[in-house]
Amino acid sequence: MHTWKEIAHLLxxxxxxxxxxxxxxxxxxxxxxxxxxxxxxxxxxxxxxxARLLGKAExxxxxxxxxxxxxxxxxxxxxxxxxxxxxxxxxxxxxxPVGWRTMLxxxxxxxxxxxxxxxxxxxxxxxxxxxPFIARLLANADRAMVRGLLSRSDELERRIAELESxxxxxxxxAAADLRRIERDLHDGAxxxxxxxxxGLGLAKEKLLEDPEAAAAMVGEAHGEVKLALQELRxxxxxxxxxxxxxxxxxxxxxxxxxxCTVPVKVTADLPTRPAAAIEGIxxxxxxxxxxxxxxxxxxxxxxxxxxxxxxxxxxQVWDDGHGGASLDGGxxxxxxxxxxxxxxxxxxxxxxxxxxxxxxxxxxxxxRSAD
Amino acid sequence: xxxxQAVGVQNIVEDKVRVVIAEDSVLLxxxxxRLLTDRGHDVVAGVxxxxxxxxxxxxxxxxxxLPDVVVADVRMPPTHTDEGVRAAVLLRxxxxxxxxxxLSQYVEEQYAxxxxxxxxxxxxxxxxxxxxxxxxxxxxxxxxxQGGTALDPEVVAQLLGRSRKQDVLVGLxxxxxxxxxxxAEGRTNSAIARQLVVSDxxxxxxxxxxFLKLGLSPSDGDHRRVLAVLTYLNS
Lengths: 371, 235
Description:
A: alpha+beta; Single alpha-helices involved in coiled-coils or other helix-helix interfaces; 3 domains; 5 strands; 68% helix; B: alpha/beta; 11 helices; 13% strand
């Protein structure tokens, strides 16, 4: 059964090879000759687009008869999505590697198809004892061709998929951050200010009837407003600490460390400052890790080290707590790992039960632009 | 409900209402309790989420001691979205006699529409900031407890602004539009008169002019009047 399918494939190669060859030669010939006129290049673009369809048909045939399953290459970006004009579409189609590779495939298929057809026709009558063997040999060559020329270009496609998913993470993280800020404002400063307004309103009403009670209420309101100010300050620092912009990671990390409930030793060895975005991610990573140390680790002492190694920024946060930190512990570790992954960073947890915990984060180093 | 419901210091006791507060921020819950107790009202329970609110009200209803009014925050645990509104709508369906006043950090016309669906009897929707005007806020609580309406001026402004009846609204004099706004907030004629510092008679004249221009038949009850106005604006 298997062999028969392969033989069928090898025989069908000839008509399809001829058709593909004619298509390619006609497309390149006419498109090439006419490229001195306006319609030449668009014609070539349409031909390349058509070649993609031929590729699709060939992948289908290979799956049916050769049992080779090949992933579809990414579709052409549609002109509407890019918001571009016809010219944009034309240009991106003309340099579409998938289209060109399919053209090449169709072109070399004809001589190959002549070979397979001849060998098979002869084989069926003369060489039939070793026919399965020959069929397997030729079919394997066919498989290699299909894989080589009709598949997605792996390296590039994988990178695209990776970047697309990273972009998703970045967007999600930004949205989650906004939600968090809104929640903090709503539950914190906003609620405190409402309570304050309520207290002052009550005091205003009391002013004439009961001045002493009113004075006590104003006193309370004064306390409230100071708390509200502090909450706003903390929130603003949580959004972006001013000291990070002004003085860099070392100063900002010292300030985070001083607010941690366990003593933290900070060592930052950075001769120059990295790009602002990298600095920000490094800061929030350390800040969140130290919050975890405060809340979950049960540690008595911790340390933060930041240094540069080649084109990487390395961060290591260590604590002597009871360990057991993991990506699925619900302590925001997974979020951190996602965030670092989105900028091609790494996040490694080493936290055996019983401690100590060492968490290493690695970020790509980018120099600070001169702004 | 009569016209003399406006609460001054002198008639606190007469208008004493029983209140249940649902608010997840302890700070605000205590503040509200203090504010209402201070004006002579009775806060019979304070809860922190919508589920507890529904449970509490059900218990009170079973004992035959349904409170007069519920003051509920829109955003409460567990999801911090619109639990308060959903609980309020549910409670209004189950206990038609219960007044529900919803407080929110933001004004959303959609919430108002959901709350008012069917009837504007005993319903209120105010910005949290309004608690700063203690007297007006307590007025609103009492009004809702007694079956009246209390809509935030911002809700009313949104309704007026988005209404498709702009051509008719343009036909109103500025004073009439002011009266229309206050009417939609759920105020009585005498409250409107006090606010605008004019006589009751002048307000009555404005009101009948407004109803004439909008082509609505004048109705007696204040809450039905609100409903008529809101329906008109929304249609």
